[in-house]
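Memo to structure team: turn this sequence into structure tokens by end of day. - J.P.
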Amino acid sequence: MTQLNIDSIIHKQPINVQCQTPLTKIIDTLIQSQQAQVPVVNADNKLLGMVSLVDCQKALLVGAYHCDKPVRVNDIMAKQFTALTEDESLSEVAIKTQASPEDIFPVLKGEKLVGILKRVDLLVHLHNNLAQCSHSN
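Reply from structure team:
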């Protein structure tokens, strides 16, 4: 496998939501982005968490039943997730993310969000690499 860093396949201007974003805006963002998850950042672009369609669905169900106060992203975001760094190799990332259920991985430089890696893009790279190996044999 070629030893490229993930920097070559990440999305460098990822769609994200700011902390304290209301639930309705999070849902709109997820629908428009056609992603199952988006990163949550503060004003300094520091990654705080990830929010998913499932998180929003749960919040809608609970909110509709209890008529609770308005839900904000900080109330529902996941604080445990697999984060990557921009200098990791594709092979390292393929191994690191293998057991993870997520399909989108935030990519960090320090604590700041610099991009996202979509599992599908990693899969495409691995598939293309396999195809190249097959042609050389």
